[in-house]
Amino acid sequence: MKKTVLFGLAILGLALAGPGVIRGEGETADPGELHRKAHLLGRDAQRAVYQEDILEAFEAYSEAVSLYQEIARIDPGWRTDFVQSRIEQWGEEADRLGREIYSLPDGVVEIRPGMTREGRRFDEGRAGAARVRETGEDEYEVESFTVTVVREGPLKGAECSCPDYTYRGRKHNFACKHIWSVITRERLLQ
Ligand SMILES: [Zn+2]
Fold first, then answer.
1. Cα 141 to averaged position of ligand 1 atoms, centre (Å)
2. Where in the chain are the domains?
3. Euclidean distance between CA atoms 163 and 145, whole angstroms
4. CB within 8 Å of 26: residues ≥ 6 apart
5. How many CB atoms lie within 10 A of CB 139?
6. Which residues lie at CB < 5 A from ion ligand 1?
7. In terms of CB atoms within 10 Å, which of 4, 124, 126, 164 comes out highest?
8. CATH 3.30.70.330, applies to 2-101
């Protein structure tokens, strides 16, 4: 219940941020201008950390990172090292703060870079990505088993109905080959 309220507040926060942050489609943005906005958001984030307003800090860092990603996309040559280090460092901050606010339900394996590749599951799953059939939003059928993708704020996870996941993966926190198939098909690690 608490998470729902926080999520609602996050949406409200984004809405209040208004058109100064979220631009219309097709509008050309200037890297310098984006950087100024991102810089101010970074300052807001640091102040929010100091005031222990974790949600505010998380939102501000996340928005700032997406602005720097936008700069890297529209003008890759613009202060490249600086932009990359902001994406990396503030991205890590946002991730750390996000983990204080959000968590995945028990029994769901987290999808993140560096997740455990147990046995041959990764190779077999990747090879079988074409067998994935989407049956609903974030729901997939793979070899007659059901894989469900779970999203909580910035976190992503999955669970599968197969015996391998039910009796081993869930317990020891690794993905079965069906989950790997879905990760591969949906590019969930990118
Ligand atoms: Zn499975």
1. 10
2. 2-101, 109-186
3. 9
4. none
5. 13
6. 160, 162, 165, 176, 178
7. 164
8. no
